[in-house]
Amino acid sequence: MAVEDQAPPGFVADDEQEGGHDEEGGHDEEGASSGSKAEAGLIGHRGDFPATPPPAPPPAYAPGDAADGEEAPPVAAPLEPPPRDSRQKRLGKALTSLRENPPKMPTGPQLPACPTVKCNLKDRLQQFPQSYCDTLSRRPWAFLLLYSIVIVTLIPLTWRPIVIDSDLDAFRRVDGPAASAQSAYLASLGSMRAVRSKTDLSQRTTFRIEIIYQAKEGSVFSEAALRDVRAFELQLRGLAGWKTMCGMSDEAAQFRCTPGESLGNYVWPKRLDNYLDPLGYFRLAFDGSAKERFPVPAVLKYLGEGLAAPHEPSKFLPQGFSGESSGLVRSLFTFTSASLDDSEFKQKYDEFIASDLYPALAGMVDESRKPDDPNSWDKPKTVKVYWRGHGVDEYEVDLALYGDLKLALGPLVLSMLVAWLKFRSLFLSFAGTLILSCVCLLAYLSLPVEKVSPASCLGVFLIFAFGFGSLFRAQDLWRGSRREALSNSERLVELHKQAVLEMLPLLGSALCFYIYVGSLLRPLREFGMFLGTAMLLACGSCVAVFVPVLLLHEGWIRPFLQRRCQKRCRGWLLTVLEPTDVRIRWAPVAQKIMQISTFRKGKPVLGITAVAVFIAFVAAISVAATTTVTGMPEIFPPSHHKNAGRPVLASFAPASDSKVPAPFEAQMCEPGRSVGNSICGLHWCDIAATPDNKSLAVYPDDEVAPCTCHVVQMIRKSKFCKTIELTFSVSGRRAVEIPTADLVALTRSFAQAQWPLAQQVTAQSGPSSRRLPSLVVEDWASGETQVDDFIALPSISMVFETDSIEISMSSCAEQVICHCGPKKCTPPDGFTVSLAAMELPIRSAKNSTVKSSSSLAPSSEVVALFGITPLKGGILADSSQTSWEFDADFDPASPSSQRAMLKVCNELPSSLRVIEGSCWVVDFRAWLLARGEQFPISRFTDFQLTLKEFLISHPAAAQSMWLNEDNNLTATMFVFKVIAGDGPTQVMNDRAQWLQHIKTLNSEATSSASGCMVTSQIWVDMEALQEALKSAWEVTFNVVLVVSAIGLLYTMDLEIMGTILVISFGICSGVAFFVFCIGGWNFGPWELTILTVFFSYSVEPAFYIGHAFIQPGLLAILPKQDKGDVLPALADDQGEVPPDLSDLGLPSPGEPIASPGEQSLVAEAGSERGDGEVQIAKPLQPIEKAAVDPTTLSEVSSVQPKSEEAPEAVLHRSIRLILSFVLMGAIKLILCGFLLLPSQIRLFQRLGTVAIVLPLLCVPAMLVLMPTIILISGRTRREPDLFVAARYAYAKTSWMWT
């Protein structure tokens, strides 16, 4: 029984949606010509008979087409079916006959039979693509539901919180040998004690904040600069959160946070005594709260003489400081957990950072950089502030990243808007954005990392920039499939066939990103794996998920919206949801491009372009070669304190927490006054108001230095003393430069002149001179101070002669104070100025003591380790967390191991430039010898027990040891302070010498101590500078090779691929000129990476143009596949013709099997009942129809190149077809780049800059230069080069097998 031909529910032909012609080729891609609705279903699924179309059935009318209140049009009466007793019987018999005696097909060579299971599996595999497409065309919603269930299930199961790795040093840390050793050393520091001590502060959780001040002008020791430092630190210590955190810290370590470790505490000390004590001293408390400044030279002397240990100048001043002025000063503040359970302490610290600490630090940074306002009473700060600290650095990076991620919503919305214009559907735009968002999440979950690098955040932007390209191509293929097939099933087959080739450039881009996995930089490896995985998922989702979305949109969503919204909704709403009328005419643009690419206009264009590329290339190379390779990307802008303060922070030695507090109080003493058993911090005196005082600090070298000596009135004492012991104290810089023997001879002469009655003046034999706390000489009138060296000489004995028993008494001790500098002190109480003269000789080279240059040069630390072995991690293992293990072969109890450790400390060649070393084994040997024991410890002595006894008297040595549960030594280290090399080359040469020296020692040691290794942080930094850029160049070279291989596979033409590479070189030269010459970028590995990332994007349009140009030659050589539009003839090899079945009512060739929309009643199989009736099987499903004009199938598609066409026509057509895809992507990339420019993260800003510049260069180059070069070359051959070469090679080598 025949039924009315009607459309599936919800289906509306595209000619009702969009009429006319599309500019992207021939007929409208979104619809067919009018009047073809009924004709569109004439050809069914694969295997239908092509024939003359039968008379069109009445127009289909789907339920719901009529508007409310409108009467539905009449439906044609159904046709009367043939009589059941005749037609159905004959039909059943015919089908039964065909099953029992099937017609013989023409046979070829017979193949051996195969097992049934294997043949069935093979048949199923061959039929799977067609079955998949058939099922997908009927139930696209089922596939989307399945994918949704998989994603909704997979993401929660594999979800982990997104934590950003804010360790910026990871950007310049390479996975080289130096980094591996240093990482193992740093990671092992957390396991130095198997059993953590509750009283050892070094095993507590600590959070350190390091603040560095830089003077804007002059010295940081100026009054204004020091005042600003004091005000800022008082502000910090006054924060409520600061007081809370310091109160929660261990009592023994609260000195680290209040008052902290700051030079300002010594510069602004509080006076505890308002008057000079009768003993001649006054006290100071170093808390930094005073308003009267202590002289900076006096502070430096106090710190430098070791009286403020553990504080010393190197803790507060940069390396290499040797004078009295510095532009930098550092302060340290540390919070220490009060117990081993630090969970609450960490939580409070995080809250303190967010609420108090970071706002205060950021506010000080901003305030210190305010320009001077002449109209304001407020004076600007005289110092710039830089800081770094535990937790606060991570918080700042996280804050900037999350702020920039909010800005990333702009590119996301903009990408969705551009996709809306390209898809002409809000539904497809939203679906594409949702798919790419899921791709980002799945790519993130596939990364085996705990913390995500900021570089991966760049990948999110690139996914939305590049990922939409695959979706755009999928829609173009789906539209173009209408010209290759009628049914949706066949369209899907054609789409998947073409997608394999069309997605090849995108797959090549994903492969290029995977090349970054071979980089030495871990963030770059993570970036490559994340982006490569995302691009693969984007391509797979495009074919697997977005194609059902397209099918659902075309068959259900768009017809439903047009039916429901056309009369019920406002016009603008339908335009927003389905803007079918929003079109851009690309044909005039393509025509204009071809006019520029013609032979006459193309030559000037190529000439100008070649000159511009040459100039840009030379300029970019020149600028890049002269810039400093930092090895680290500029995460923040140059003005940010992290970037601007990087060299400032690097100028200081690594900070360490003080184990004990420095003396909080100190006594300032008058010269010659005894303070009992107390130690004077400094000596202090006022300048005598005499005319001979000079403004000079020291006497010139070519002048003698007269001394003024103060002596005690000893006239009466001399009557009762037979022997007087004179103690000479001499001040002045000249005094410390004269050899002690010469200075003692001068004091003897002075004593003889001062006491002529002395019969004998003898210098005591014994130790040489010793230094006293320095003398601060103050000019009370001007307030100026000067610090002079102060030394004590060996005592001098004077013997007097007497005739009286009365004066025969014991010896007396007296003091003599001599000031040999230009500025003289006033005599203390009880002293008088001596009339005897003493002069220091002219300063000469032989009696001058010059400080070693090594003590003034910048230094670094080299650590020698015994018992630690580094282990290499995985591909994405953080180099800062490289695994390590204890060396099982290391046995410190072995005498050979003890000798090897001592040898490392004592046998250091001068080429290693060691300044000093910290080796407990040297002290251990001296301790043993002092006890009368031998070193190494004898075999029958318990080494570990002896070592524990040594640690009781030398507890500091335990800081260099790894102890197990029994407090036995399992590993140890020795630290050497060495002169830092100048530049990467010298540093790496120093490293090579160290490695060679240790290798020699290891070869001479036994197996119990042959695993010594050395490491240094400066080696890691210099290795990164050398290896990071080298690795980036290797990755870039590999990317170019992969892009070339993919392009060659896609185009099969060497000439086309060579043209693409030349154009790409010009594009990269232009981008390099802009970023290095105009933008002022420093050339480094990350800058090179950003340029490489966009390289694959720039060549993609050229791939499509080149492929379209040689496609006719490609199709002419590749084997053609019969689309199977016609069933094979039913004749056997004997020429027998099958019986005529026309009388059975079966469709004849040329007649469709079933009309679309008809519920067929043809039986699948029939069997006669007892009454002769045939049982009717279930009706067949209606054959789907596609709204395509069948007349277009009889002619060659107007959008496919033809081999007989001229090159101009082919290029014009290919440009017109890809113009919307390329320009829409370029516009989206440019607009997104503008939205990235306000980002705080410098990498995001630079990525936005390249995203703007690259399309402006790439689009004209690929759309204009590519056709121009092809046309000017005069090439008319359309056959690919590789096929020509293959045919030539085949012809030349065919003699080998013929």
TrEMBL record:
Biological processes per GO annotation: smoothened signaling pathway
Membrane topology term: Multi-pass membrane protein
SUPFAM superfamilies (UniProt xref): Multidrug efflux transporter AcrB transmembrane domain (SSF82866)
Single GO term (MF): transmembrane transporter activity
GO cellular component: membrane
Major location (coarse): membrane
Feature: compositional bias, Basic and acidic residues: 18-30
Protein name: SSD domain-containing protein
Biased composition (Low complexity): 62-74
TM stretches of this protein: 141-163, 426-447, 453-472, 499-517, 529-552, 604-625, 1032-1052, 1059-1081, 1217-1237, 1249-1272
Organism field: Polarella glacialis
Protein location: Membrane
Record keywords, A-Z: Glycoprotein, Membrane, Transmembrane, Transmembrane helix
Composition bias, Pro residues: 51-61
InterPro entries to which the protein is assigned, alphabetical: Dispatched_Hh_regulator
Chain spans, region Disordered: 1-88
